[in-house]
Amino acid sequence: MNIIAYVDGFNLYYRALKRNPPVKWLNLDELARRYVHTGDVLVAVKYYTAPVSGYRDPDAPNRQRAYFRALKTIPTEEKGSDVNLASHLLRDVFTGQLDAAIVVSADTDLVEPIKIVTLEFGRRVELVNPMIGRPAPPALKNVSSSVRNLTMADLLACQFPATINTGHGAPIVRPPSWA
Fold first, then answer.
1. Which residues contact 76 (CB under 8 A, 6 or more apart)?
2. Where does the pLDDT of residue 166 fall: very low under 50, low under 70, confident under 90, or very high at 90 and above?
3. What is the value of pTM for the model shown?
4. Could you tell me which of 5, 43, 39 has the C-alpha nearest to residue 130?
5. Residue 28 contacts by C-beta under 8 Å, 6 or more apart in sequence?
């Protein structure tokens, strides 16, 4: 089965990463692979987030840019605002690009698109709940094919190296406040 992972970056950040700086340097490709079943093929990881402002923390945009550069070293597509996740999930089902999906989010705004994918198209949607230590919202759980809970061990095991040498240009370095 061809699998596409959809990561709600905003939701993941506020549910699992914000208070845990050592896991913010997260390799989304490695994370998604932890949830792919044997025999399935992860064909894409799509990451949805919005640019951060430097209003409260003037260095936040620099850290986010460093993270975006790190994501470009793996087969991860950055797709802008998290509002696009539902649209792309549905488009990918309509066009036959996926047999199953992994959705990393606890946002109940995704109930209807997940319900369409599972009930109307008969595709598997595995929800990865980023609310560490708390259950997934019942509304999401009810429409998903299965639910797995993100753990701190998953996050720790899926970090980029502290320095990423790209072979061209300056290396990408983990922001010091994330160490």
1. 28, 29, 45, 46, 47
2. confident
3. 0.95
4. 5
5. 5, 7, 45, 47, 71, 74, 76, 158
